[in-house]
From TrEMBL, chains A, B:
Name of this protein: Transcriptional regulator, DeoR family
Coiled-coil stretches noted in the UniProt entry, renumbered to this chain: none
Organism (species): Roseibium suaedae
SMART domains per the UniProt record, alphabetical: DeoRC (SM01134), HTH_DEOR (SM00420)
Source lineage: Bacteria, Pseudomonadati, Pseudomonadota, Alphaproteobacteria, Hyphomicrobiales
UniProt keyword annotation of DNA-binding present: yes
GO MF annotations, alphabetized: DNA binding; DNA-binding transcription factor activity
Domain of life of the native organism: Bacteria
Cytoplasm listed as a keyword: no
PROSITE patterns according to UniProt: HTH_DEOR_1, HTH_DEOR_2
InterPro entries in the cross-refs: Carb_Metab_HTH_regulators, DeoR-like_C, DeoR_HTH, NagB/RpiA_transferase-like, Tscrpt_reg_HTH_DeoR_CS, WH_DNA-bd_sf
Keywords: DNA-binding, Transcription, Transcription regulation
All copies of domain HTH deoR-type, residue ranges: 3-58
Amino acid sequence: MHEKERHRIILSAVQDRPVVTVAELVTLTDSSEATIRRDIASLHVQKKLRRVRGGAESITPPQFVGLAGRPFSVNEALHGLQKRAIARAAVELCDDGDPIIINGGTTTFQMVHPLASKRMQIFTNSFPIAEHLLKHSKNTIILSGGVIYREQNIILSPFDNDVTRNFYAKRMFMGAQGLGPLGLMEADPLLIQAEQKLIGQADELVVLADSSKFSSRSSLILCPLERVATVVTDEGIPDHAAQMLEHAGIRVIVAAAGAAQEAATASG
Amino acid sequence: MHEKERHRIILSAVQDRPVVTVAELVTLTDSSEATIRRDIASLHVQKKLRRVRGGAESITPPQFVGLAGRPFSVNEALHGLQKRAIARAAVELCDDGDPIIINGGTTTFQMVHPLASKRMQIFTNSFPIAEHLLKHSKNTIILSGGVIYREQNIILSPFDNDVTRNFYAKRMFMGAQGLGPLGLMEADPLLIQAEQKLIGQADELVVLADSSKFSSRSSLILCPLERVATVVTDEGIPDHAAQMLEHAGIRVIVAAAGAAQEAATASG
DNA sequence: CGTATTTTGATCATTTTTGATCGAAACTGA
DNA sequence: TCAGTTTCGATCAAAAATGATCAAAATACG
């Protein structure tokens, strides 16, 4: 990875959280601690960020208004590490130029950092994702139109005739509240509405779900398991869940913290 | 392959991605590293791109959409004071609960500050306006869907069937490049496209134009003067311009720095 | 057609960047 | 305070990128 590319990713990451650790940046950029430290030092003298012990922080402290006050912050710390690894593995599925859809959510939001050094066509219904990518990447951003719901941070239109129908992607990436034999589960009716609108606008549905999602239950079923092409999860996935997915013909990618590797591919 | 041909390819590639490596360009042009380096060096002195170790990057100098306050760069400082006064007077036309449209632009952006204390239904095609209002107000924000154009900071859909058609407002607020007997003038074709889409989705068209706009000329006519219901401007408006507007049956509001007052109302 | 000039590609020494190691310094918790 | 852990910075060797040089190829020109 090139210097500029790393710098872009580092600056992207530093906006997202109060502090980014050297270790996080190492996994995010696939380079050594020494290099990250040099990068941070370099960006520090350029006044692009502030160097702190253990990592780096944004140069503009009160800048987190947009990211702090939302429900994003709750789950964030909990499975943060896995989420980032999962997001990174998901981005590795993409090439420059690909048209993709990213459904809003805390897990999918983590994709913005590895995406910072890409140049893709990204359709999203998430205002924060669009905002971050607009500021920290050169990707083409296409936004879904409609009312911005502050709590969920998604944009939703009650009409069927919006730009969503004019965008067709290679892949759609989404999170989920739960993942069981009955299918993909979601808790918030509003999110259901947003997601159902997007499913069907992509060849391949990729679900990002950390291992806790396999034990989580929810009342609303979004779509059957068969609709899902790929699941990206972490090493904590229970055996029975892996078997369930495999049985449904789903490709399972297990993202290790630091690297991503393919674990199983079931025949269709 | 000719030199010019390679240069075209290199410049194209550099626009396409945050950073292109020498190796990438070698495969892209079927020439040697030495040649690519010479090309990059040549284009570097021509200021067509920036030479970085490992390759080249786009020459986007301070192309950083401000996080905090400065989403637009150039016009900002010029008529800042008047613009703010005009924007303030424009907002005073509105009441809580009103559905309004705000077309993106440097003048209309100034409306966000007085709007911070309102609770209205605001439709906009401007990402920075939406961002600011989302973070600093409790207004309901409805966003137009489509591609986000970074330079103009507006969202534009090539399709006619988007949410825009489902929103109808009491007033639409917009800036303009110029305002003459022939009508409302704009310089950027992209902005024209965005504005024409919105005009017609509101009862009343309100144009925010500081007094310099009456002497400014531009090639593209957006709409005839008769379509405009109200013009908000500053004290520097020339007499002939005021007469012209009055003659067209336009209500003219002159915003003094510090207060807004109605100056003239022409009968229809 | 033949010569002069320019452009290109290859080789190699030099410089820059990177990653690993290890002692020093800072932080943590008792 | 002190021991244990983490983070840092310096150093060094390996790898990568670069620049210079020169011969071959392409092109221009008389």
